[in-house]
């Protein structure tokens, strides 16, 4: 969407918190088997190998664990964790059974904080400023940056990690050291100096590790290593951490001030919204003290591990998980299924992750001729700022079919499978005679979310909604911002055409669009005239016999907002007003919106942008229609129909008012008097006799001198 509010924690985190709260929880072993393909036999084999070869005695691993455990600040844990992961990846390559090489050969864990990731140009200064603590990326990014501090894009991210420190871990590490008879290591790192993981990726040279045999202090292998040690933790440990286990007393800045799970959800949102549709899902981990939970995010929702594992006490299992991440191919990191394939010149995994889908291609079938058409994606146009939901993204395309030579747009969105396809609704409307509709050429369901990783999660819940990626090709239209960038003079024409379109959708096609926005109204030029087009029927619904929408999606949000103004001072003024419509509880938002129509001077309270001053008379008439409707609903709510309120708010009423054909009057009360005269049944007495309506002299009285009795009759 066109951003109108800064992407800050205040504006975004409430929605992320809701998604995180409703995350599905699966056993740790189910998660790693589904996402990382680390099943129980392989996990048991790897854990046994790592124990037998005593990886915990490696000097770099000892040093990294010691620095991590004795760090007195959260930020001091970042580089030890990165060094630990990179050393594990080095030791596994060519030695751990089945790990000859990594699909992404230069995969590297690096510290990112305190550097924010680059915001995409489409979001500009309103985009979120986020600083994940650790990132799993390609090493080439570090080598080619030419700077000591690397600035990453969200498209670079293979996995993100959010680290939280609630208590010192030195006691836990000392116990591990005593149990395994390891030498003492100083806080500063002991014999092995700190490795600067943001400067250069670790060498691919593998240290010489003992080939086999049991050595002192190895201990016995757990009978069921896949479940971790007896010190395993469930999700309650994470959720309650920070309230009962904050033992940091060294300095106030050491204390945790944010929810790591919500912060990680924010990173997932940016990966989904700032990678131009290139990711089907993304992966993350939350490390709270030494407890690790793993997270999977896609358009259908979030799936997290029910339990956590300990980096210190479950070191071998943690190491196996680190290696499993290193063994992931592009599709395990969220690459789109091969139905949308990369160009031959940019094969995977060498060219993963991509910056955009430009040059990618897919096939669709012409509905009338069954001709197979190859579509090649061109420039990116739009990506919805969303984590869970449709996550719509648009590309310009080229087709290899002669009938499709005009400029085309491909729209992709993750639709609820139970929802009627967009092209079906457009076709119903077209056959019913509705105008101002987009011209749809091709369409297709590309894949279901449940066919991939989610199938292995075995999630069966009433709350789960399966989604399908649907592709739709339609003619290219022009955005409103190009038309209204200098003048709003055509705004009345747009409203006039759209009111006709929406009315005919409702009464000819029995459809409600339900998603009117500046993004979903576009235009084209036909024979020198501007013709407005209503697009995006993703949220549209066919009405039932009672005229109510058949709602099949569990998430419905209604938002009214404004586009950027241009002037900082004016923008602050308008945002102060509109922000009241966007923040607070649903009740508070409803009250703010209702106030606009509660008072006779409601319209006068609005600050009108300078470029819209010429529209003030027209806007005033537009406001009058809804002020009138508000009064009718308040006074005669149970006596008039809910849809048009006795015709007070209808196509004819709106068009008549906007055209300046309704009676000129000093007050909306004059219009109410006309309404009462046109609906005498509303003011009839109990005996059925007709009460005399208000006179013109009555309604000409000042508003403070007027009131209504219980039948809506004007009284002095």
From TrEMBL:
Ranges of Polar residues compositional bias?
A: 217-229
Q: Where is this region: Disordered?
A: 180-254, 684-716
The Acidic residues compositionally biased stretches are 684-697
Protein origin, superkingdom? Eukaryota
InterPro entries given for it?
A: Kinase-like_dom_sf, Pkinase_fungal
Recorded coiled-coil stretches: none
Q: Any idea where the Fungal-type protein kinase domain is? A: 230-439, 460-542
Where is the sequence biased in composition, kind Basic residues? 193-202
The organism is Hermanssonia centrifuga
Report the protein name in the record. Answer: Fungal-type protein kinase domain-containing protein
* Entry-linked Gene3D superfamilies: Transferase(Phosphotransferase) domain 1 (1.10.510.10)
**What is an example of a Pfam family matching this protein?**
Pkinase_fungal
């Amino acid at each position: 969407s066109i951003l109108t509010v800064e992407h800050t924690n205040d504006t975004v985190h409430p929605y992320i918190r809701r998604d995180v709260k409703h995350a599905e929880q699966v056993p740790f072993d189910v998660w790693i088997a589904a996402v990382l393909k680390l099943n129980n036999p392989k996990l048991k084999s790897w854990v046994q190998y790592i124990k037998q070869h005593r990886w915990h005695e490696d000097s770099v691993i000892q040093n990294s664990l010691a620095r991590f455990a004795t760090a007195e600040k959260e930020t001091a844990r970042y580089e030890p964790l990165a060094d630990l992961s990179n050393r594990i990846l080095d030791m596994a390559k060519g030695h751990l059974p089945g790990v000859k090489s990594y699909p992404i050969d230069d995969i590297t864990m690096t510290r990112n904080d305190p550097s924010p990731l680059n915001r995409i140009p489409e979001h500009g200064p309103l985009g979120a400023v986020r600083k994940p603590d650790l990132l799993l990326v390609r090493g080439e990014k570090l080598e080619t940056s030419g700077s000591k501090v690397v600035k990453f894009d969200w498209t670079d991210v293979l996995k993100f990690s959010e680290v939280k420190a609630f208590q010192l871990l030195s006691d836990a590490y000392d116990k591990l050291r005593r149990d395994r008879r390891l030498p003492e290591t100083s806080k500063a790192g002991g014999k092995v100096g700190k490795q600067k993981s943001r400067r250069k990726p670790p060498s691919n040279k593998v240290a010489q590790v003992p080939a086999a045999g049991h050595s002192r202090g190895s201990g016995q292998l757990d009978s069921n290593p896949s479940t971790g040690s007896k010190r395993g933790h469930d999700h309650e440990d994470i959720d309650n951490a920070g309230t009962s286990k904050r033992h940091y007393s060294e300095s106030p800045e050491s204390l945790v001030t944010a929810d790591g799970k919500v912060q990680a959800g924010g990173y997932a949102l940016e990966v989904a919204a700032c990678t131009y549709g290139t990711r089907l899902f993304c992966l993350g981990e939350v490390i709270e003290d030494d407890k690790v939970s793993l997270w999977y995010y896609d358009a259908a929702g979030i799936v997290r591990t029910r339990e956590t594992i300990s980096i210190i006490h479950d070191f071998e299992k943690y190491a196996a998980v680190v290696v499993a991440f290193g063994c992931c191919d592009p599709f395990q990191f969220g690459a789109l299924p091969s139905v949308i394939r990369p160009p031959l010149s940019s094969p995977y995994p060498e060219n993963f992750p991509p910056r955009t889908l430009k040059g990618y291609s897919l096939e669709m079938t012409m509905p009338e001729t069954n001709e197979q058409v190859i579509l090649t994606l061109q420039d990116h146009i739009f990506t919805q700022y969303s984590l869970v939901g449709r996550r719509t993204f648009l590309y310009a395309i080229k087709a290899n079919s002669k009938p499709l030579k005009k400029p085309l747009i491909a729209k992709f969105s993750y639709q609820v499978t139970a929802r009627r396809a967009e092209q079906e609704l457009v076709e119903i409307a077209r056959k019913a005679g509705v105008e101002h509709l987009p011209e749809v050429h091709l369409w297709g369901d590309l894949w279901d979310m449940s066919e991939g990783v989610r199938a292995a999660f075995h999630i069966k819940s009433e709350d789960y909604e399966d989604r399908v990626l649907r592709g739709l090709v339609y003619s290219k239209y022009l955005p409103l911002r190009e038309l209204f960038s200098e003048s709003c003079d055509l705004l009345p024409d747009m409203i006039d055409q759209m009111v006709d379109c929406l009315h005919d959708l409702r009464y000819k096609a029995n459809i409600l669009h339900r998603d009117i926005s500046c993004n979903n109204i576009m235009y084209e030029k036909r024979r020198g005239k501007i013709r407005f087009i209503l697009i995006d029927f993703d949220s549209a619904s066919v009405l039932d016999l009672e005229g109510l929408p058949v709602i099949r999606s569990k998430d419905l949000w209604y938002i009214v907002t404004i586009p950027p103004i241009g002037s900082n001072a004016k923008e602050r003024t308008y945002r102060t007003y509109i922000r009241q419509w966007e923040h607070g509880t649903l009740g508070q938002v409803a009250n703010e919106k209702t106030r606009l129509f509660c008072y006779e001077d409601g319209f006068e309270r609005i600050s009108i942008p300078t470029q819209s001053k010429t529209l003030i008379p027209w806007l005033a008439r537009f406001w009058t229609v809804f002020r009138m409707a508000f009064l009718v609903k308040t006074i005669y709510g149970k006596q008039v129909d809910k849809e048009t309120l006795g015709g007070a708010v209808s196509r004819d009423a709106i068009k008549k008012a906007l055209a300046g054909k309704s009676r000129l009057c000093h007050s909306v009360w004059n219009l109410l008097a006309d309404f009462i005269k046109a609906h005498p049944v509303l003011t009839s007495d109990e005996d059925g006799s007709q009460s005399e309506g208000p006179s013109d002299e009555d309604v000409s009285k000042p508003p403070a001198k007027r009131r209504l009795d219980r039948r809506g009759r004007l009284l002095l």
